[in-house]
Amino acid sequence: MYKLSSEQVDFILNDIRARGIEMDSLQEDLLDHVCCIIEHNLEENGNFKDFYEETIKTFYKKDLREIEEETSSLITNKHYYTMKKLMIASGSISAIILSAGIALKFLHMPGAGISVVVGITILSLVFLPLMFTLKIKEKQKVKDKVLLALVSFIAILFCMAVMFKLMHWPYANMMGISSIALLGLVYLPIHFLTGIRQAETKVNTIVSSILVLASCGLFLGLVRSPGASKALNIKNTHVFVRGEQILENESRQVDIYLMNHAIDPEMAKISDAIYNACNELKSIIIERETGYKELDKDFENRDAWIEDGWVSSYFKPETKGYIKRNELKELTERYNKVYTSAGLVPLESSVLQMNEDRILNTLNDLTQLQMLVLQNQIAAVN
Fold first, then answer.
1. pLDDT digits over 140-175, tens only?
2. DSSP 306
3. Where are the domains of the chain?
4. What distance in Å separates the CA atoms of residue 271 and residue 370, rounded to the nearest whole number?
């Protein structure tokens, strides 16, 4: 049995490196195999170099580097198939969860919100990045890789915009319009100019560009323009301000009427508490929306109109709005229990029971509640 010296082992290792093997683990494996073959098959007085040359040739057809290329290919393919299975699984799961969430939302059943969020999150942050990673390996040209990266980013941004829109979270419109702008103004020109130059992709490029352009137009057709949004907000704020003027006039008339007519002091006390709580709650919302605690007819000149947003952020636990609304709800429930003859104040489908509603609807709910309380005081006297 032949015994290799340390110099001979170093010679084999250096030769393996010189033949193009760069992976350390593969160098060690080859060194171990070659040394074992030589020590088991070479006679004690045999020619080491000649036997080594014959042995090393058995590991390749043309060049030893083939082994590293095959090893890298096996590792890559293993990861490729694992990622491909994960991509298919994540895509299927996200589609099922998202579809279930949309169905629950249409049916107004619990679990809709969390299903939509989980489904779109998996789609945006797992499925689409995996698809991009796998597809980019198939692209050879740099421009194709850049286009794929751009359209993947646009798809993720658009999915997140849809999720934010469905959940009534801020910045949904900004993300949606940004994704459409990137698609129509950045991706589409690059895709069109690079694809139309080649005869084999010319027709497909024209067709896909038409579809992308039409899709952008259809989406923007569903979105209200900034100018139209401003005009609608100003109009709705005018309606609210007129309602406040009517409420103020009604309050003065009721005060004058009650000066000459007797009313239960307890009813007057709780009515005033409800009226004032409504005013405080409206002031909280209006101040955060406009910077002013109340609005008058001059609001348009001060750029202080109310946006068409959602009121849910005002009623988060432990906020002023949350505390004041709970106080108002308790007062109203106590009012309905004690003064049934004067007329009940409805709670259903109002700000006192709903977190998800438009800001102007909430403000108008509060104004109507105040009007009912004032009218009930007159009805109690009669």
1. 777 788 888 888 999 999 999 888 887 777 788 888
2. P
3. 6-59, 98-222, 226-381
4. 9
